[in-house]
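Usage

Read records sequentially. Each one opens with the input sequence:
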Amino acid sequence: MARSHRCGPWTRPSSRPGEKRYPLDSGDINVPADVEIIAISPAEIRLVLDGVAEKTVSITADLAGQPAAGAQLEEVTVEPRTARIVGPEKTLAGLTSLSTQPVVVEGRDAPFSETTTLSLPAPGVRVREGQLVTVRVKIKPSPPPEPTAPPRTRKGRS
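and closes with the structure output:
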């Protein structure tokens, strides 16, 4: 005898954005005839529906650490400068830029380049274009400290 599979109320959710909650009971779970469902945890499924959006955002380099003593950052550039991302509409609405994974400058005293990826800000956000990013860091020697003039003494008065 064929066992009928009962589809739960989530099979045809409303397509409007928002939160939906669907309670579960043992009839919603398809199990072999010799298996008994004792408990269901969690007792409900929570879905959050949102529209899908696409957006181009700028890319910024996330630098970690400080250059070596006697060196300073001169310039940091990224290539590409922008990324095309896709994801939940509400999440993308608040995004203006994405950061790279951290690029370590700790102890460095010379220019370098590093290829890295983007740090994605939230679940569901994906990079459509610009997955790999080249970060170019220009480091230069710090200028020598300005010499200080010795204090002036006044002549004549004792």
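Summary fields computed downstream for this record:
- Residues 12-49 form one domain.
- Residues 89-93 form the longest helix (5 residues).
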